[in-house]
Write a structure and sequence with these properties.
This protein is of the alpha+beta class.
Amino acid sequence: QNDGRLRLSRQGVIFKNSKTGKVDNIQASELAEGVWRRVALGHGLKLLTKNGHVYKYDGFRESEFDKLSDFFKAHYRLELAEKDLCVKGWNWGTVRFGGQLLSFDIGEQPVFEIPLSNVSQCTTGKNEVTLEFHQNDDAEVSLMEVRFYVPPTQEDGVDPVEAFAQNVLSKADVIQATGDAICIFRELQCLTPRGRYDIRIYPTFLHLHGKTFDYKIPYTTVLRLFLLPHKDQRQMFFVISLDPPIKQGQTRYHFLILLFSKDEDISLTLNMNEEEVEKRFEGRLTKNMSGSLYEMVSRVMKALVNRKITVPGNFQGHSGAQCITCSYKASSGLLYPLERGFIYVHKPPVHIRFDEISFVNFARGTTTTRSFDFEIETKQGTQYTFSSIEREEYGKLFDFVNAKKLNIKNRGLKEGMKQSYDEYADSDEDQHDAYLERMKEEGKIREENANDSSDGSGEETDESFNPGEEDDDVAEEFDSNASASSSSGDGDSDRDEKKPAKKAKIVKDRKPRKKQPENKKGKDPNAPKRPMSAYMLWLNANRERIKSDHPGISITDLSKKAGELWKAMSKERKEEWDRKAEDARRDYEKAMKEYSVGSKAESSKAERSKKKKKKQEKQLKGKAEKKGATSKSLSSTKSTAKSMSESFKSKEFVSSDESSSEESKKEDSEEEGAASPPPSSEDSASGSD
């Protein structure tokens, strides 16, 4: 169901799950049968052990059968049998139970097989059996139910449906809380899932009983156990890693986290007699035990799950604690560097093994310089960022990462740092990152060239930005001392007279890039290309040969090698390439002459059209100016006349400020009467009428 790596050795078969890190180890003496068959993903290998367990591995190529068959014969003394699945499409056949598998056969050929450990429930009806399965979180579509019709038989006393169901239930992963619990821990504080739960310990599973939810956790799903001290040294975390996780609706809990106080003590009595305890746990547990609550829980879980408890190693932070306070996503928590990985508690809990880490990185904090971020990227491309780590923790964490031989980003993998934490890493070749090496080499060459040019030339060169190394003599506009330095220069003139002025470092301001003038042409793509030197002609002709002589050579190493070969070449052989370079130069000069003649004709034509256009624009501009001047003169005469009429007033029109408006109107009318000519006789007659 999950990807991983398979290793076949003389001692047995080892499979390591890439997702969980869980290792299946099958001893050669336990193997009973090996079957090779065609499956959906190419070809598959099915291994059956003497105790009834079945292991299936897919993804093989057809060409690998002969190699595997010979290996099985030589080392395991097994014949790798070829068996094909039946593809007739019939839906009736025979059900056969073998070990952990239910096989549906037509004739002698199997159609499909169901691992009974995946069955979560089995129910019976009239002539019918229904199998329900655990949901697979890694698959987009999961098979949830299969129904079998079981025809009635004439035999008395045996119900075929019940017999079928009993065969399934005997091997299925069905949790049935029958019998009494071995012990019960009351009201334990649980961080994930949150709440207080009673934990009932049964022989095959763990039962969490809360006010709202109940969870039943089979011991087969427990991957790892962790016991981690809190930073305050008064509390303890007990972490249970689960695969598959427990579910509540759409929520998945991959970790069960319990929080204990170190002061809590308990006296525990197991619900078994002393002989049963001794027989089952072989001295790891006793019937009556007492001590700290966290010690009792961890001791019982270790004995029942049969797995080691992981505790922090020799790492000690700045404050003396075995963990580091940090934030992951939105929540604050504790990061524990372990002997084989990192674990973060508590929200959300994260466990990262060293063998799945691609590289780690120390980054500057985004909000303040008092903290830094610790980034981890896995080989699958997942990135975890633990932020807001105190600056004092940097040295301790860096030394720990260095000691564990993890690859630190931007520094590369140091020589001799071979990662030894993988359980069978010797079988795989050490992966060499050619791209990283090439980048490092090119960086070194660039630095050397920059140093050479800055030493040799008297001209100013651009300086690289090195924080903390540049001189602070010249204050920037955003510097807090900028205003102080400018104002102090005026007020402290007498101090400056006594003390010789410090020669400020002349920093030339970078001039803004000038706009390309309109008449200046860009590079013409049709222009002939410059000829290559003799060395470049030789390199182009011999590049492939050098690559074939030195497979996997990087670009920088190839350039170095070519330089050495050219240097060692005899004068006679170099003359041949000098002649070719000279011929190329002559051809270029000839082509350049032809190109310049054509370009001159084009440029003169363009110049003439440009001059004509300028002349037209000038004429239009002159006309517009003339028109504007005329309209301006007209408007000025109008305004002069208006101002003159407004400024001239007769004596009669001048009245005191105290005079009313009516008097002024009257005077106006009288003045108009005096000024107007006498009316004609016709007008007077019409007026009298």
